[in-house]
């Protein structure tokens, strides 16, 4: 160990990592021998292990995970080192590992954080990593013991088996609470409490939530009241407990919340008694107590095999598949199936109350092995069953036990603790009653347009002091919603402007953010959206693609009258569930070819891969190998008779095709096997779909109003009959379609049927939708309202304050959507819950961009790309282990190569898009007379074509901001289509423009489909106007977003006309009116032609019709319409048509116009030194610590925008970074040493690149100045061609 301890400090990262793995293996080997571990692991060694665990150290994910396991082992066994870990800020390290953020503290040691980005990081953290990390926290803190007089042991409070363990726990607590350690412990608990609250909010996995509550209980139990007050300051623990009580389908979580609530009332009654009352927790407790006699609505126990199908949508893998997942505490008293015989013996010893000596106890510990990460399942649990026992008077409970008695016991205990302070509670209960009365008065005011201002002002004043529970039960949210959507158009506009003036103007928007937080809390408590899971229990080792190899059995039965060999009329196939019926069709054709080739032989002689089913006289075959052969047939020499027959049969595809059906329902050729079976079972009554124990195991019980849907277990065990028929003619082509469409409705006034009938959910989502719209268009709404209430004196300007869109993200729904996207069988089969489609298209602001983009890739990019992405995720999983599904034959992506000319690149691009635009293959481009091939030239093609689309000679765009000497169009606010009148649409040039817009749509869709980077600076209004559910009305403010100069001119004309009319109304004669007005509309000498486009008449013979005070409004409306309405409608229509040839344009409704503009290349990029350092890889002579690497990053950081584009063009072939910046570059940005050859020196060489690999060959220059000069020379002189270097 000393040798290894020294090697851990080796500067070579590979050597130190190997030594680290050795230490991990040794520690794990002694994980049951505490005495030996004390001798092996010193405080110095522990310090070095903790240093390697730091995320800033460049160690692999697998090594870091092993280190976490080791830390957990040491935390459990070595009480003396627990204080060392806490002192070395192990809590900060865990926080950084899970959140990818370094915890920042203010002067009072309060944690400051960007909660939104932290939640998103946690949502994408793996279940295994979360449980392992949080279990370290649990191991470090003493285990709470059952309360005196309580007859229950578990699941959160357990008794120790031996006095030694009890004494060790007491010593651990005394050590941590000593005067020396207490400050570090408080800091640790404060950091972990913040993390635990965020973890619970971001995860829907029940095991994660259980260990989370266990850690919280240990924290609140160990600390004294004064320390606990410091730890919980500014922490929303009461709100978390409230959200748990609102989901009664998980008794184990409610029991944990009750345990924490009791401790809080005992230690800090003055803080939490009021919160529990105001948040509705005591109301929920009363509801639990009302169910004491078995009333309806109380879930008594969680089905261990059905945890994934509960209302709260938590993912619990089948306990049958994972014996270690029975609970965080591994309590198995109430389970008949045990891990092994040793567990049974262990329970027998417990029930007999026998005392074991040290050796027997050590052996028991080894047999139990429940706190250590298991190689197969990765379950790293907080405590071990072998350490605990239940006395004869106690009842042992696990998480899956009937917890009704314990729940009621804890609820009564909490109620008694609350009632103990009844005298003190009278004051805040009266205060709460007064607030409720005031809220009802506000509700009445919101229902009246005359009192709306006063009601909004009152709500603004009191909102910091009210809870979401009080808001929803007082009716104020419903009244607020009605005031913002009901009435005439003018009434709604004025009501919304009043809300903006009160809540969203000025510098302080904190109260508006509080209102949003309340709405998210209400939505989290009321929604019951389902997810559909495959029910495959692969444990924590499961990767997103781990279910791809799962097979189902289908029986192919030919319809009567089909002319095929008798032996092929009934076939039983074992086939991958995610395979399509196209695979079945190909296999059947191969099978038919083989049968024809070997006619006269028996079926048993036809192929060594066929096996006879003696019971049914059917064959059980695996078509995967033959399918792979079929996919690769173009790469083989078809020399065998079999291949000759197969080729002939393939040529006969135009003569006939197969049609499949299940229970009379036709199945499309691109439908998956498991999707067809699932839909068939869903269409049947549950009594027919399932039988006996299958119905119990499947998770389709109807005991609760809301259930997640899980694949019935009999999908994986039964054989399903698929009928097929042979139909003359070729198979019908599968047209590109959007398999999932959102409902067409107004998201402000309606709610999709997929969202259920919950009025509370409807109110919360509709209000969030309205507030998001107000936040996006607040300035326009204020301007429009001012136009309605304009006076000659004018109105003081209001300063609208837009808050970050991240405030509208909902972590719970995001976690659910991410969980659903981890189910390849469900996604590929197009059986995702409809609410996900509706929510991403109608309410995209609820989800972060990354999640919505993944949803787009999963649901709109086609089967092949989804399969390829999941298989890549499987190969690149954290464990780094290969699996048998690495080379699945389904969904193989074919690369289609084309060669184009640089001199006629736009013309070539039009041809390529026409020929290959709708192809499902990956498009790769090469240039004539250049040796480059692969990713680099392809990115260069997309970049060059992007630039060609902005040429002035194309006549596609408005040119108001362009430079006269430039050949390219430039727009300060982005490119926007030039208008075309009805008359112009009839000429040839306009038809060419429309064709270019169609090609542009196809081009952008192809770039998204193939994940290519483009550089087209489109105005977001272009995408806003193309949305089917935008609800946008053309206005002058929208014209300003397209052409600021034109918008300002129109606004001035509108104001001048309004002032001219007012003056005319207030004076006695028309002559006096004209004298009082400085500028008359008639004096502007305007006619009915479009400003900037004199050849476009707004009306017939418009160039000869002057604009006057009488027709100025018509003129303004016509200009607005021609600029952003009818004048560009055909261009947008053609763009949508071209786009939809690749995948449905409606899928883009999941993104805002600004996000779509970013996808097309209009976005900001992070070039900070820290980001570059984290993203770069130094190799072949360089390390990240090399002087030249540091200088390179400094030079890159100093680049201006033009130099950045030039560097990226030189380095990657594209002037822009992909979504995600440098971190998202694939392959990774790599810098290697370029050696010099005599007689040249290192400074004589220019850098060179391999764009396909993002590979920079950099000489080790003598100085930073030389580096900068040579790099810029290469950037500007070396781009534009792919040559050998």
From TrEMBL:
Biased composition (Acidic residues) is annotated at: 342-370, 609-623
Q: What is a biological process (GO) this protein takes part in?
A: protein polyubiquitination
Q: Which SMART domains match?
A: HECTc
Q: What class of enzyme is it?
A: transferase
Q: Which GO terms describe its cellular component?
A: nuclear speck
Q: Where is the HECT domain?
A: 936-1285
One matching Pfam family: HECT
Q: Which residues form the active site?
A: 1252
EC code: 2.3.2.26
Q: Where are stretches of biased composition, namely Basic and acidic residues?
A: 307-316, 328-341, 624-640
Region described as Disordered: spans on this chain = 296-373, 605-644
**Which reaction equation describes what this protein catalyses?**
S-ubiquitinyl-[E2 ubiquitin-conjugating enzyme]-L-cysteine + [acceptor protein]-L-lysine = [E2 ubiquitin-conjugating enzyme]-L-cysteine + N(6)-ubiquitinyl-[acceptor protein]-L-lysine
The organism of origin for this protein: Sugiyamaella lignohabitans
Give a GO molecular function annotation for the protein: ubiquitin protein ligase activity
Print the keywords alphabetically: Ligase, Transferase, Ubl conjugation pathway
Q: PANTHER family this protein is in?
A: E3 UBIQUITIN-PROTEIN LIGASE HECTD1, E3 UBIQUITIN-PROTEIN LIGASE TRIP12
What is the protein's name according to its record? HECT-type E3 ubiquitin transferase
- Family from the record: Belongs to the UPL family. K-HECT subfamily.
